[in-house]
Amino acid sequence: MHTRRLVKRSVIGSRVCAPGLTGDAAPLTGVIQAVKQDNRDASTGHRRNVYTVLMQDGSVKEYSEEEIAQMTAKAPLKSSLKSTCNGGQRDGLTQGQNGGVQRGEALSLSPESTEEPRVLEHKRTGRALETEKDHTRSVSLLEQKRKVVSSSIDVPQARKSEEEVDMDKVTAAMVLTSLSTSPLVRSPPVKVSEGLNGSWKDGGFTPSSYSSSGYWSWSAPSDQSNPSTPSPPLSADSFKPFRMPSLSGPPDDNIDEHDGNSLLFDEPIPRKRKNSMKVMFKCLWKNCGKVLSTAAGIQRHIRTVHLGRNCDSECSDGEEDFYYTEIKLNTDSVADGLSSLSPVSPSVLSPPPALDQRQPDGTNGTKSESSSSTPLSRSAPSALYLVHTDHAYQASPTHSRTQGFGEQRSQTIAVLSSPPRAAGSLSRKSRGEGKKCRKVYGMENRDMWCTACRWKKACQRFVD
DNA sequence: AGTGCCGGGGG
DNA sequence: CCCCCGGCACT
After folding, report:
1. Which long-range contacts (CB under 8 A, 24 or more apart) does A54-59 make?
2. Residue A237 maps to a domain
3. Between these two residues, A274 and A284, which has the higher pLDDT value?
4. Which superkingdom heads the taxonomic lineage of this protein's source (predicted)?
């Protein structure tokens, strides 16, 4: 099917690889300037297209459809052009995650696919035309490319060189395009997030712009409801700036990303995503629940307030880590995309409220709503927290310290910020899922439980 | 079945 | 109060 779709559409602006006047010896690349149908000329009787190509050397030539197709298809060398132009193979390669299906088609290059190049082209000029006609396809390709960006593929380079060669006026545009483009792709989770974290975290919260790694969402405003497409895309605006240089190099980026595109494509391209995350640090000390925006702050808080140490961080033995938890709030729409339940309301973004509700002593009835142990558990989340928890033992420092019960540190857990169970039973909230004395100490050590647990009351030690 | 804890009891 | 437990809601 791809062939059908690929071809026959406007290819103006597409680059092609054509044999020089002398033949294959010196292949030239050129840009299709016009296409016309020529019935008369067809020796075979059926009509065919004649492409007017502006060659890199400035000359203008006309080629029949077949000629162009062949040129591109035949010489391996030239194929570079092809890939350069359309990036088709890349698309196929990188599909991994989602949307593998449709992309697959892009992969195969048939002779006809010669025209595919134009897809790429839309970076520059020809895009408007093709867009209109074949935007659907274009979009998918773009998407793919975007996704692929990070992957290491040699294609890019080839393309680049080609472009340099044949692009004259277009070159500039290309460069700009590639530089500013695609948001892309999978962000190396950890790295990115950390880096970003620090920055915004310290400065107060900046609700939007942080993209978390691991989660992507596609919530294009206009069409998040595309259940069938698992693919996501992702990209966060914030990435743009650095992404190019480091990740994939200019070449692959490709594509779209220009405003122009967005205008041209009426389809919402999932690219501009905002994955925003916030990181908060919550004190886990019994009945404290203080939430600070910086790790240092929370550590200091714990050190001074709970551990009774006044010295600076130097004298810290790291114990503070056990008493606070890092919470990442993912404001983006993973939730809405995945859970498809409720549209996200911005209001939910602020973590504090959610956290606060339960910290009080747990007796007011709202205590355990967010679970720290079940990832993505609740339904209809509007935002989600990634809780990075270190231990929650705030019990008696001496105890936990020396005994070291579960030493599992750093578990990353996702918790939803919106009141999970609102929908369900009103009377009873779901029970807290965090560690409780019983779990931590076991029935054998019941005497070590907090009194509340002993009384079968809401645990006050491990308040989640 | 195991767990969390509300709502009630007894001292 | 302190301590304990029946029993329900959840997982």
Report:
1. A54/A30, A55/A18, A55/A28, A55/A29, A55/A30, A56/A28, A56/A29, A56/A30, A56/A165, A56/A166, A56/A167, A56/A168, A57/A28
2. no
3. A284
4. Eukaryota
